[in-house]
């Protein structure tokens, strides 16, 4: 267990260092989300009440699409110079690599959310009428749901010819229950019309199931040709 | 020269009926061979002969379609991967990090003790400077190859699998790499080296393994191709 933890830390530190130097993922995610916020705000021009109704969907769809950019980058980096093979021939456990990638992507998407949320609030004139303390919980659980599945399916589509297309094709359908829970929970908190608890529990269960399944299956994905 | 007792030791690698198919194309067609420990094998052959596929199969990167590989007495290659050093045609290094940063990371994967010292030692062994802060992406191709060799040596492996280590390396540096490898063989390592520059290995390799169309067609102690022998 300590080996997995220590190798996860080492791989995460390496990934953060690479991202800090290249800024490949964060720049493209930021640019993409910024476009979504601006274009949607000009297209819809909603009232404050309408904003509260639709903001959950807009926010999470923007983050989902932006996350796909980061998810593709995270493995593309391992494919340059076939560095992934160096990991595959080493005695390091596959789970350490998977966890490090998930945590790395989680950090990238969280940074993106931290930067984009104020813009969403300004452009859509948002104010939570429900229990606002639940928003960070939804954000953490929702982001983890996106990155854990995304990291797994990005690894699966790694060796396919058109992986940029393959990832959304695999990821989006399987993320529908999580996306639904994120959108409904966010909508519930913003409008205050109903409780978000059911959706938060659903999201937590989804995270738990998919984290365990991905950890269990990632070894096969990594060693596959 | 390798120790005289080599032949009496149990083989380092045994390959039995190894077949590897990519779709309908068979890259390896029933390769069977035994390789003694503490020897330096040069694997030669034309493009598409199956050299790289054989090396990748030995490294555990390409699972065979049929057949078996036994390495250091076990067919569970995963259990002996810490005793393997693998150098591929691409560098297997992160371009954005310096050589030392790369090696420090890989040293963690192998749980190498005294990491900084070991990383610096292997970098010096391939005649590079450990204090070089430039990212690997800015290295010349030859420097990258040498750093890649340093990465393969990091865990002090018993078996070294090297794919084209001399490509884009100048002749002098390639000769230095050969003497380093001879020293490693003399220190007890078994080396498999795929190359198209076989002349560099004259007097250094113990055996030349000739491959053609996915099969080992000949094994010669000196650099004579099977056609020359006939």
Can you offer a commentary on this structure?
Chain A is mainly α. Chain A has one domain. Chain A contains 8 helices and no strands. The longest helix of chain A has 32 residues, at 48-79. The mean pLDDT of chain A is 89. Chain B has 230 residues and is α/β, with parallel strands linked by helices. Chain B has helices spanning 51-59, 99-109, 115-125, 141-153, 171-186, 226-229, and strands spanning 13-22, 25-35, 40-45, 66-71, 84-87, 159-163, 190-194, 207-212, 215-220. Chain B contains 6 helices and 9 strands. The A-B interface holds A 3, 6-7, 10-11, 14, 17-18, 21-22, 77, 80-83, 85-92, 223, 225 and B 59-63, 78, 81-82, 84, 86, 88, 90-97, 101, 105-106, 108-111, 135, 151.
Give the key terms.
heterodimer; A: 225 residues; B: 230 residues; alpha/beta; Rossmann fold; 9 strands; 26% strand; globular; disordered N terminus
Task: Give a brief description.
The complex is a heterodimer of chains A (225) and B (230). Chain A has 225 residues and is mainly α.
Amount of beta strand of chain A = under 5%
Please, what is the average pLDDT of chain B?
91
Overall pLDDT of chain A, averaged? 89
Which regions of chain B are unreliable across 5 or more consecutive residues at pLDDT < 50? 1-5
Model regions low in confidence, pLDDT < 50 over at least 5 residues of chain A: none
SSE ordering of chain B: EEEHEEHHHEHEEEH
